[in-house]
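Q: Could you fold this chain for me?
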Amino acid sequence: MRFQDLKFDKDKRYALGKDVQDHCYYLSIPVRNSRIEYEEYYQLTDKLYSDFMNNPSEADRFAKECRQRLHDDLLILSPGIERGEPA
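A: Sure. Below is the predicted structure, expressed as structure tokens.
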């Protein structure tokens, strides 16, 4: 499995983990379209990952910004034609 969640917040609905293929960290959020629910993965620097692990409120803020599509430049996988909405 490419994406390995290391920590997740069930209430805030995001996960922090490691992309074992590209050897980088990520924050993921669940999204859904009319057919499927899936995850969007946003690449993190080592420093951001460490900051988020030590300060969950910063990770909460970043996840919220991802839901607003403010960090699309950090998406590890490009969304398909029918991009989902945050779940």
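A (continued): The chain has a mean pLDDT of 97.
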